[in-house]
Amino acid sequence: MRLAARGSVRRRRAVGIAVVAALLGAATACGTEAEAEAAPRTPAEAVARAAGRTAEVESLRYRVTGTLPEHGKVRAEASMTVRPSAMSMELTGLGESEDKPMQVRYADDVLYAEGDTAAIGAPADKEWVSAGPAVWGRGAADNNTYGVLPGPLQVSPLPQSTILTGSKDVREVGAETVDGSETTHYRGTVTTKGLRAAQTAAGDKATRDLRTDSLDQFMALGVDDTLTVDLWVDGDGRAKQYRLRGETLALKEGRMVDGGPLDMTVTLMEVDRPVTVETPAAEDTVDLGELVDRAQEG
């Protein structure tokens, strides 16, 4: 699993990422100003309404494909719940055996990853590592997960799908079919400045909170200046698919360097279907923090 750390990296986190590498990866209230029942008159209104309707989603099954900075091509199939926050993911594309899926789980503030734990000094009978207290779905928080997941997969796709609300040039591309659903395709470019302006212009707290989430998701991606965003909205006015493209920056040895290209497509396949996230048994799990501490002492 190839991992990247952003920001000032303490020795504990650096060791943690090295250990993981050896192993192989906010809802707001409805009723905002963007959710008027009348049909949207402009592409910007359609995008805003789709963003507002993410607040209605309680559970989701989704697919991720594309190229992630410092990792390359990945594919993931995942299911999640919003309240409580929980996630189950099968991720392909990380580590030396890039065609071998890795199982990832998140529940009760703990992130779990399945892999060859013996390669990082764990007992042979342990099939999973755990990291916590962890945060998943809320952006770029420092959450003791040691880079188990690439940054763009560390967040929920629901707030991530709202980034296009910060675009000043959003336009309609046309009608397209996505995963069997008839959709309208929109495209625009987004910058930090545009997202901050959209946040400031919000007419109520719910909309402002929603746009704050969008800004947070944009910052978590580490985008260098401009992000190109495509959004497909279905007949119910909800986001069905989105694509994020841009160049990224990363902080290494105290300076900003090229982080590589981001080109990620997320398809929201099933909304509000029952989702159960099963976590591994305690006897099958080793604490990643303890392994990191042990490696530091050595």
User: How many strands, what sense, and barrel or not for the largest sheet?
Assistant: 12 strands, mixed
Mean pLDDT: 84
Number of domains: 1
Looking at the overall shape, the CATH architecture is Clam
Helix content: 10-25%
Discrete helix count? 6
**What is the strand arrangement across the widest sheet?**
7-8-9-10-11-1-2-3-4-5-6-12
CATH class descriptor? Mainly Beta
How is the CATH topology named?
outer membrane lipoprotein receptor (LolB), chain A
Determine the structural class based on helices, strands and strand pairing: alpha+beta
Shape: globular
How far apart, in Å, are the first and last alpha carbons? Answer: 22 Å
The proportion of residues in beta strands is 25-35%
Q: From N to C, what is the helix and strand string?
A: HHEEEEEEHEEHHEEEEH
Describe the structure.
This protein has 298 residues and is an alpha+beta fold. It has a single domain (11-297), classed as outer membrane lipoprotein receptor (LolB), chain A, CATH 2.50.20.20. It has helices at 11-23, 43-52, 157-160, 192-201, 205-221, 288-297; strands at residues 59-68, 72-81, 86-92, 102-107, 110-114, 128-131, 171-178, 181-191, 226-234, 239-252, 255-271, 285-287. It has a twelve-stranded mixed beta sheet. Strand 2 and strand 3 (86-92) form a beta hairpin. Helix 1 packs across helix 6 and helix 4 runs antiparallel to helix 5 (205-221). The radius of gyration is 19 Å and the shape is globular.
